Each structure stands twice: as C-alpha cells, then as structure tokens.
C-alpha cells in the first residue's frame, strides 16, 4: 500500500468516526454531544498548527551548525554581494 493510500484510508477512518459521533450514531452524554463534538475539527486544526510551530521552533533551536557550512554560507554571501555591486546595487 502506498503512502497516499494509507493517508486516504486514515482520513476516511477519522472522517467516518467523526460523522458517526456528530450525527449521534454513537451515544454520548448530551454535554459532550452538544458542546464538544461540533468544535472538534477546529480544535484539532489548532492543535495540529501548534504542534507544527513547536516542531519548527525545536528544529531551529537544536540546529547544529558546522564550521564548514558556516564558511560555505559566508562565501556565498560574498559572491552575492560582489554580483550585486557589479549590477550597481548598494549592499553595504
């Protein structure tokens, strides 16, 4: 099974579970049915976004610099500045 098929299968499973909860096919207490289930998709989107922001921040925080990468980046910056100066752009 390909990755796309797995993703589609999981999405269909989650959607069918949510619809069965939303339509009341699975009995739940009235408070849960009326107040929690309708906002569950929005809550999951916000949670997913917060998780992605955390992962991005953690990746930036734990990014391991290497001296070779730093030297390569500085060389590319020098080349870009030289190219811009040739074209008449003030970069300093």
Automatic annotation (TrEMBL):
The keyword Cell wall biogenesis/degradation does not apply. InterPro entries: DPM3. Keywords: Endoplasmic reticulum, Membrane, Transmembrane, Transmembrane helix. Its main location: endoplasmic reticulum. It is a multi-pass membrane protein. It is found in: Endoplasmic reticulum membrane. The chain crosses the membrane at residues 7-30, 36-54. It holds the Pfam family DPM3. Pathway: Protein modification; protein glycosylation. Belongs to the DPM3 family. Stabilizer subunit of the dolichol-phosphate mannose (DPM) synthase complex; tethers catalytic subunit to the ER. Component of the dolichol-phosphate mannose (DPM) synthase complex. This is Dolichol-phosphate mannosyltransferase subunit 3. It comes from Podospora pseudocomata.
